[in-house]
Design goal:
InterPro entries: HODM_asu-like (IPR021848). With 380 residues, the protein is an alpha+beta fold. The relative contact order is 0.14. It has a domain of 191 residues. A hairpin with a 5-residue loop joins strand 6 and strand 7. It binds protoporphyrin IX containing FE.
């Protein structure tokens, strides 16, 4: 008697839970069943200040280098990261849009619902996470720093998003063959690829055309499965790193040549070789992935962290770990990352800094890895 009294409500609870967290394994490609999942409302970022909050010091390189997807779970609170480089990024982005307009952002009709859903997500997330910068209004979002006021019914969603965030954004939609296509985006500061070359293409052809190392052997299958299975409640993040031979965040002209005449692949046209270590910039991207519950589109954010190599080499453990990582690049990755152009400057510099740090005790034995942040000193 008592047993039946409990078992039925328990079964109901289990059925509800399994329905709520159902995996979309059996759904038809291209068909998304809207989910009731709600992204948690974030806490305000502690003491966030547009002038004082430093960029998070990602030092996302390891002693070994492997081409893998390298995705890890993301705390929903951390989805969008803004800091005291917001003004710089915003000004650069506005200049880019003035110069190149819709070459840099666009929306295909198939992605429009997803873009509107994304705006609504940002309307909740941004004022809660960064209350001193954003305010939700009845029509959209207001920027309290520069008084830009966005009306979601009037302004182009990708234009708005480009103005709100430091990140670039790509929206992916799934077609009936299970391909993921890049059907909306605002790509203003990519550094080494152009929105107009990739817009409306599948993720597979984007990565093949870009000659991403080991794409066919190590990445393609896992990425397709990953996208298909990505659930609204399990957002992910990944990081990359590389070097640039000039300080121009939007476009690496020293290695790639002129942005408007470039054929679309890295390191083909730029003739320059790095002459001094002060020419070298470290570029690392934090890329987040989440699926929006209603439309089912995937939102891919790309946030660049960009600073002189000599700056990060002042930090303990950085030179040796970066040196080992770079020396561990396979031939394909070396070519992709333009190694030939800066190796004679970068490798001896890293080796020398690593040696100097060793004398101060920052050896591999004393290093406690803390990826994607810099290592800590081990408590011995
Ligand atoms: C799970 C998701 C993804 C994985 C694992 C992945 C993996 C990679 C890898 C390994 C590279 C080489 C550079 C690096 O190490 O980052 C790369 C480059 C690239 N990815 Fe992805 N990617 C993903 C999602 C996307 C999405 C959604 C887009 C949408 C536009 C995209 C566009 C590109 C482009 C354009 C490049 C070439 C960049 C360049 O050559 O400068 N990727 N990707």
């Amino acid at each position: 008697m008592c047993y039946y009294y409990y078992i039925i409500p328990l079964l109901l609870v289990l059925i509800t839970i399994s329905f709520y967290f159902r995996t979309p394994k059996t759904r038809k490609p291209g068909v998304w069943i809207p989910s009731n999942y709600k992204w948690p409302i974030p806490e305000p970022y502690p003491d966030w200040n547009i002038h004082k909050t430093n960029p998070i010091p990602y030092r996302a390189f390891k002693h070994k280098y492997n081409v893998t997807m390298g995705v890890q779970s993301m705390d929903p609170q951390d989805w969008i990261q803004l800091d005291n480089e917001w003004v710089k990024f915003h000004d650069l982005k506005q200049k880019r849009v003035e110069e190149k307009g819709k070459d840099l952002y666009d929306i295909s009709p198939i992605a429009l619902d997803g873009c509107i859903e994304l705006l609504k997500e940002l309307q909740i997330y941004l004022p809660n996470r960064y209350p001193s910068l954003f305010q939700a209004t009845s029509k959209g979002l207001k920027n309290l720093f520069n008084n830009e006021d966005y009306d979601f019914k009037i302004h182009d969603p990708m234009f708005i998003i480009g103005n709100l965030l430091q990140d670039d954004i790509a929206i992916l939609t799934e077609d009936s063959n299970g391909n993921y296509n890049f059907t909306a985006g605002s790509i203003l500061l990519a550094g080494s690829w152009r929105f107009k070359d990739k817009f409306n293409k599948s993720i597979s052809s984007i990565h093949s055309d870009s000659k991403v190392p080991k794409y066919h052997s190590n990445l393609q299958n896992s990425m397709n499965k990953f996208f298909y299975r990505l659930k609204p409640e399990s957002p992910m993040v990944r990081y990359n790193y590389g070097f640039q031979m000039d300080d121009n965040l939007p476009w690496a002209y020293s290695s790639l040549g002129d942005e408007d005449s470039n054929s679309g692949w890295r390191f083909q046209t730029g003739e320059a070789k790095a002459l001094s270590i002060d020419d070298i910039y470290y570029r690392s991207e934090r890329q987040s992935l989440r699926r929006l519950p209603k439309s089912g589109v995937i939102v891919f954010t790309i946030r660049a962290y960009f600073l002189p190599l000599v700056e990060i080499c002042k930090e303990p453990f950085v030179p040796q770990r970066l040196l080992n990582g770079v020396l561990n690049w396979d031939e394909e990755s070396k070519e992709y990352k333009g190694f030939e152009k800066y190796k004679d400057i970068v490798i001896p510099y890293l080796a020398k800094q690593a040696e100097l740090q060793k004398n101060q005790g920052f050896t591999m034995e004393n290093e406690q890895l803390n990826y994607p942040l810099n290592s800590k000193l081990k408590n011995i």
